[in-house]
Structure formats: structure tokens, C-alpha cells
Amino acid sequence: MADYHPDLREDLEANIEEDLDEPAMYKVLLHNDDYTTMEFVVEILQKVFHKSPTEATRIMLLVHKSGTGVCGLFSAEVAETKVELVHHLARKNGFPLQCSMEEA
């Protein structure tokens, strides 16, 4: 870029910075129900979201008490994959656990 005029270089750098916006991030949420066991929710939080036992228990209790709990913040593709994985594991184990994503 040494051949460019200094003003042109500044304009190019400004345009590049504007074009490189961060991708939208999504919260993945678990939803309370009357059938999924607390133990299974903790297991999902540990296996799918890589939470420690303590953090998984904290989130599970939040889901139980308030109806929803945030499992993490992810790019759209990762969030979609995690939601699908939670649904697959829940159905495979006979639970109606619901998981969703929303833009952060």
C-alpha cells in the first residue's frame, strides 16, 4: 500500500474496518418443564455446554426457578448446533426438554 496516497489509504482502512463487523452472537436458553429431571439438565449443561458441575447446577436451578436459563453465548451456527444436539439428546432419553436461541 506504499504506492497509495495517504488520504486514500486512510479511506481504505476506514472502509475495511466498517466492513469487518463482528458476527451476531446468540444466547442459548434451556426452558423448564415438569418432566425433565434436574440430573439430566445438569448432564446436558456439562456435556453440551462444557460447564463445571457447580456452574451446571447453578444454571439448572435458575431454569427450575425462573423458567429459563442461559447456557452460553455463541455464533449463530454454533448456537443452532447446540440447540439441535440438546433436542436430540433429550428425545433419545425420553425427555421433552426445550432449548432455544435468541440474538444477544
Quick rundown:
The protein is of the alpha+beta class and 104 residues long. It is built from four helices and three strands.
Describe this entry's structure for a reader.
This protein has 104 residues and is an alpha+beta fold. The chain is 53% helix and 20% strand. It starts with 5 loop residues before the first helix and ends with a strand. It has helices at 6-19, 38-47, 53-66, 76-92, and strands at 25-31, 68-75, 98-103. The relative contact order is 0.22. Strands 2-1-3 form a three-stranded antiparallel β-sheet. The chain has a single domain (22-103), classed as Ribosomal Protein L30, Chain: A (2-Layer Sandwich). The mean pLDDT is 90.
SSE layout and pairing:
Layout: H1 6-19, E1 25-31, H2 38-47, H3 53-66, E2 68-75, H4 76-92, E3 98-103
Antiparallel strand pairs: 1-2, 1-3
Helix pairs in contact: 2-3
Describe the structure using short key phrases.
Ribosomal Protein L30, Chain: A, 104 residues, alpha+beta, three-stranded antiparallel sheet
Structural class by secondary-structure content? alpha+beta
Binned strand content: 15-25%
Strand arrangement, major sheet: 2-1-3
Number of helices: 4
First-to-last CA distance: 37 Å
Order of helices and strands: HEHHEHE
CATH superfamily heading: Ribosomal protein L7/L12, C-terminal domain/Adaptor protein ClpS
Tally of distinct domains:
1
CATH topology: Ribosomal Protein L30, Chain: A
Would you state the CATH class? Answer: Alpha Beta
Proportion in helices: 40-55%
The overall pLDDT, averaged over residues, is 90
The counted number of beta strands is 3
